[in-house]
Amino acid sequence: MVVASPTHQIHSEKLLAIELPTIDLSGERSAVSSLIVKACDEYGFFKVKNHGVPHDIIAKMEKEGFNFFAKPFEEKQKAELAKPFGYGCKNIGFKGDTGEVEYLLLNTNTLSVAERSKTISTDPANFSSAVSAYIEAVRELACELLDLLAEGLWVPDRSVFSRLIRDVDSDSIIRLNHYPPMPMLCQDKDSSPCNQNKVGFGEHSDPQILTILRSNDVGGLQISLNDGAWVPVTPDPATFCVNVGDLLQAMTNGRFVSVRHKALTNSYRSRMSMAYFAAPPPDARITVPPEMISPTKPALYKPFTWAEFKKAAFALRLGDSRLGLFRME
Ligand code: GA4
């Protein structure tokens, strides 16, 4: 059992530190799949190690990211946000949300990455090959995790979830978030910091199926547990942090919950995270495997397509909950 150990409490916000489950993917398959299901049941968030994504692929991607964010603002703006893809600074989505973050949002389609690279890098071929290699490796990891999930849930159609991601029309995206250092505004008398870390990316859940996140060694990610406590996630560049998205909540008939999370800036150091959001093709119908519906667990959500869900997500604010719109009456 994972035990929550209170470390510090800052002002009125309850802040606990727990270690999320770290799952070793090199373990025995059926044990690994049970651990993943358990982590999704208990937290909706977990870390994976021995994940099979080669270190040099991650390192190249990270280097390209840092090189890009180190450029002067005017240069970065050349990769202008052709909504929704490209470079964005502080503005999130279309409904007025903001945060202390700059980012690059890219479609995972190889041709589109190659085209976009021309405005992002002075060496577009290099940028595009780093991004494509990263996308391919992380997609493989996402599919493997989804297959393990199906196995752990005893769904006979083992590729029921991963098939959506492998589809050539999959709408998966990749996002590099850079949180520049933001000095804290105050320090209380016993010199423990006041809760002045700025919000880099506000509280939200991810709309897609699964998110695979990797960050440098600077913390900032916090997840919300169901009792309302915010839990900082210890950064670990050697692992990927995985979380359930809204669609996986719908596809498991509400068994797994897409957990709300946020990212705060650090006072002294830059945080950079790279998130792969695994999504189905726009016209894919989001349904629940029949084994997950029973007279005692009737269908919670109406069937809908990813395009319909995405439209609803973009019409709402970042922190709004969207699945409620698709609940059965
Ligand atoms: C959250 C997850 C991904 O970063 C993202 C975000 C998207 C955006 O930044 O454009 C959204 C946000 C995210 C959820 C609700 C909508 C859409 C901003 C926003 C207000 C790229 C995504 O797919 O959904």
Tell me roughly what share of residues is in helical segments: 25-40%
**CA radius of gyration:** 19 Å
Query: In DSSP terms, counting alpha (H) and pi (I) runs of 4 or more, how many helices?
Result: 8
Structural class: alpha+beta
Features:
8-stranded mixed beta sheet, disordered N terminus, globular, 4-stranded antiparallel beta sheet, binds gibberellin A4, about 325 residues, 8 helices, alpha+beta, about 20% strand
What does this structure look like?
The chain is α+β, with helices and mostly antiparallel strands. Helix content is 29%, strand content 22%. The strands form three sheets. The chain has an eight-stranded mixed β-sheet with strand order 1-2-10-7-12-5-4-3. It has a four-stranded antiparallel β-sheet with strand order 6-11-8-9, with no helix packed on it. Helix 1 (29-42) packs across helix 5 (124-152). It starts with 21 loop residues before the first strand and ends in a 14-residue tail after the last helix. The site of gibberellin A4 has 16 residues, from strand 4, strand 5 and helix 8. Gibberellin A4 binds at residues 84, 92-93, 95, 97, 105, 173, 175, 204, 206-207, 277, 313-314, 317-318. This is gibberellin 2beta-dioxygenase. One of its GO terms (molecular function) is metal ion binding. It comes from Salix viminalis. Pathway: Plant hormone biosynthesis; gibberellin biosynthesis; Hormone biosynthesis.
